[in-house]
Every structure is written in C-alpha cells, then in structure tokens.
Amino acid sequence: MSDQSTQSSILEVKSVRKTYKLGRVKVPVLHGVDLTVHHKEWITILGASGSGKSTLMHLIGGLDRPDRYPEDPASIVYGDRVITSLGSKALDRYRSTEVGFVFQFYHLLPELDVLGNVCIGAMIRHGRLGYVSNRKSVESRAKELLERFGLSERIKHRPAELSGGERQRVAIARALINEPAMLLADEPTGNLDLKTGESILEVLAELQQDSGLTMVMVTHDERIAARADRVIRLVDGRVEEQSMSQSV
Ligand code: ADP
Ligand code: MG
Question: Model's pTM, two decimal places?
C-alpha cells in the first residue's frame, strides 16, 4: 500500500475510554485509545485475550458507547459523522449502512436458512415494509454474494447443516448485503482450524482488494495480524505506537 500519510482517513478514534460496571465494581478496559484508519486499508489490532479488542470493535461499530469525561471528551468520527454524538436512530442508521460485522462465532440465526441469514441485514436496514419493496434486488445481491463465496448450493440450508468455514462465509455475505464501506472483523478465524481459517482470510483479503473495503480486524494471533497492511497493538487499554508491518 502507498504512503499512509498521503491517505485520507475514514475513521478517527480519540481518547476513547471504556469502563464496565459490575454492580459496584468498575472494570476499566480502555484507557484512552487513539487510532486512525485510512480509506481502503486493512488494519489489524493485535492484543492478548481480555485486552479490550471486542470492546473497541463494539464502540467503533456503534454497538456501545464510550465513557463520558467532559474534561477529555472521547470521539469517534467516521467520515464527517461524529458517531459518539449521534442519537440512537442515527446510530442505528450508521450501523446498518456503513458497517458490516463479522464475529468469531458467526451469530447466524438458526431458524433461518442461508439466504434468510444473508438478507436479514437488509431487513434491519429497510424495515419490514421497505424490505418488501426491495426484496427482489436484495435477494439477487444475496445470491450473488453466496455464489462468490461458493455457497450457491447451500442457500436453503440451515446454519446447523454447514461447516464452520461455510458458516463464516455466510456471515461475511450477511455483513456485505448493505454494501458497507467498512468491515469490522472480530477474530473471524478464531473458531476455525488452520486451513479453514486461511481460506477465510483469503476471502477477506480478496474482498478488501477487489471491492476497496476498509477492513478493521482484531486478533490475538501474530501470524494472522501479519496479513494486514498495518498492525497496531492494544496493550494496557491503549494503542501502542503505530507501526507499518509490511507493504503489500
Ligand atoms: P478481548 O476481545 O480482547 O478478549 P474484551 O473486549 O472482550 O477483550 O474484554 C475486555 C475486558 O472487559 C475483559 O476483562 C472482560 O472480562 C471485560 N468485559 C467485556 N465485556 C464486559 C461486560 N459486558 N461487562 C463486564 N465486563 C466486560
Ligand atoms: Mg474478543
């Protein structure tokens, strides 16, 4: 990838802190994370288990909100939108239009078939009524994605009838149904054997290159991290000095 300094950013994370409260006990997890993600790059955040990787992904994806300290306000800015200041409707909209999520454990709905699982993101985006009028185009996009990921023969299958690798490919198709600009992948190979994990990384790498997706991935695995354009470390609730890992 070309010189990072000449690239424009898609996401700016500043002074983000997050503390969970368990009854009276406070569990501080993120202590002031600063992070810039550039358009169309693949950035991986490497950190030990429990270091706050999923927490950070949830904040970036608008699934949760950071702590509020008026003297040191946290901000997450996506394009020209200040995510941390959005109301819940606008946040829902951000989540369903700009971001795709891929999780370690797929989070597919067991009662829906593969096609239904991929289309569900569009249903959330358009609402039930809106979905009905968009149904044809959504289903045809879902089928295209499933074909691209080698799952054409599986569209009527339920998740329980699929292998781990197939389930994750369904989850990737679901993440892409609304054509997000940014994919957030939380340990996407963490539940897969080495070879299957490798094939999922290939799918993601191809997507990122061909479709110009911005990809933010988190992992605890150095080897997986090394595939990205840029790797940063999450240590003690902060991001360590950003460094280039390898050029593509
Ligand atoms: P990672 O994804 O790097 O393994 P997490 O972000 O899941 O780390 O968790 C970081 C820390 O925050 C862990 O100590 C975890 O137990 C704690 N934690 C995560 N989610 C919650 C929650 N909802 N309530 C309380 N503590 C949590
Ligand atoms: Mg995690």
Answer: 0.93
